[in-house]
Amino acid sequence: MPYYPAELDSDDEGSIEYDWDNDSQPDLDDVYMGRTMGHLRLGGSTSGVPGTPPPRYSSVPTPPPGYAAGSLVTPGMQSQASIQPERQILSYLRADLCIEIADVCPRWLKQQKHVRDFVTCGLTCNEKLCKDGPSDTTMCTYCHRRLKVQGKDQCGQTCADKAKIACLLCKVRPKNGSYHFCGKACKGIATKSTPLILEIAKGHTSYDMVENKFKSGWKGGSPPPTIAKIFKIIENEEFLKPYDAYRKRVGPKENYLYHGTKRQCQLGVSTTKLCASSTCAICNILKTSFKVEIANPWGRFGKGIYTSSASNKAFGYSAGVMLLNKVVLGNVGQASGSSCPSGYDSVVYDPQGASNETILYTNDAIRPVFLIAFQ
User: The PARP catalytic domain covers which part of the protein (predicted)?
Assistant: First the structure.
C-alpha cells in the first residue's frame, strides 16, 4: 500500500545533548557572572570581561537605582558584603542583555562551553525568546548577531542553510536529527501551551517533507493546489498517551494519512489561536483529536474516521485546511464496493488509487501531526 512511514515526531523524547542548561547551574548563573560584574563599567565599555558588546551597542541597560560596581544598595537595604546583592543585579542584567542585546550574554560567557553557542543565557530567557520573539527584528533570525540581507530573513548563506534544519520553536539551534525540536528544553516550553500550532518556514526540511508528500500523494487529474502555510501540531503527553498505548498493543508501525476538514475561523490564515466554536471542525480535532462517536453514521463503510493516502481525495473534503496524521492501522481488512468486512482494526478501499479511503474505528488509532493551509 502507498502509505508513508511516519518519521520521528516531536512528541518523542529528543536528546538532552542540545538542551539549554538549567538556570541553576553555577557556571551559567550568578556565581560566575558575579566574578565578572565587578569589572563592568555600566553605561560604557567593558573591562576585564571576556568579549565586549557588539559595535552597534554603546552601552548596556541601566540597572536598578543604587547599583555600583561591586555592590548594590536599594532603598531600605544596607550594602552587604555577601554575593547575594550581586545576584540580584546580575539576574536583572542577564534577563535584559541577552534578549535586548542578543550577543552580549554569550560573549561574556563564551569561555563556558555549555552556553557559548546560544543566544540566550539560560532557560528563562530562552522561553522569553520563544514566546515573544527577538526584540530587534532587523537582525538575522538564526544567529541574531548580524543584520538581515535585504529581502531575506538571515544574514547570509551560512545562516540560511542552518535555518533549514533549525528547531521549530527557538529557531536558533539545529533540531535534533529527525526530531522537530533541538532538545527537551524547547519541547518542554512548547508543551506548556497545548494544543499549539507552529508555523514552519518555507525551505525548512520539515516544510519540504510535508509539501513533497502532498505532491507525490496527489493522484487526481488536475494539478495539486498551492500550499499557503504548513504548521507543526504540538500536543501534550496526556493527549498522546492513548495513541501510544494503542500502538504498543496492536503493532508499532505508523503511517501518514490525510484527513480533509473544515474551519469556521481564521486558523492558519491570520492566527494560530484555536477558536471556541463547538462547530469548528479543525479546532475541535486539535483540542480532542478524532472521535468515532460523532462521525457520520451514513458513511460508505460505516461510522468511522475516514482518511486517505491520496492527498487529492482528502482535499475534496477540505475547506481551506487539511490534516496530515500519524495512524496505526493494526489488522487491516480490504473493502470492495460498499461492503465492509468486520473483525478488523481498519479497512482500506482502493489502496493504490486516487479514490483511496482508509477507515479507522478506534479513536486511539490516530493523532494529527501537521496542519496544511491552502490559498
Answer: 207-332
- Strand pairing class (227-234; 366-374): antiparallel
Instruction: Give CA–CA dist 29/10, Å, rounded.
Output: 29
Percentage helix, strand, coil, to 5, in the chain?
A: 30, 20, 55
Residue 95 has pLDDT above 80, yes or no: no
Helix (H, G, I), strand (E, B), or coil: what is residue 318?
Answer: coil
For the chain, give every residue range classified as CATH 3.90.228.10. Answer: 194-374
369 contacts: CB under 8 Å, gap ≥ 6: 6, 9, 232, 233, 256, 323, 324, 325, 326
Residue among 257, 233, 206, 243 nearest 363 (CA): 243
pLDDT of residue 117: 57
Q: What is the pLDDT of residue 99?
A: 41
**Pairing status of strand 321-327 against strand 366-374:** antiparallel
Closest CA to 125 of 112, 114, 134: 134
Span 290-297, average pLDDT: 90
Q: What backbone phi and psi angles, to 5 degrees, belong to 124?
A: -60, -50
What DSSP letter does each residue of 102-117 carry, written as one string?
Answer: TTHHHHHTTTSTTTTT
In Å, the largest CA–CA distance within the chain is: 86
Q: Which three cell numbers stand for residue 164?
A: 533549514
Using CB atoms within 10 Å of the CB of residue 47, give its burial: 0 to 12 exposed, 13 to 18 middle, 19+ buried: exposed
Predicted model pTM:
0.75
Q: pLDDT for 16-49, tens place per residue?
A: 333 433 333 333 333 333 333 333 323 333 333 3
CATH fold for domain 194-374? Phosphoenolpyruvate Carboxykinase; domain 3 (3.90.228)
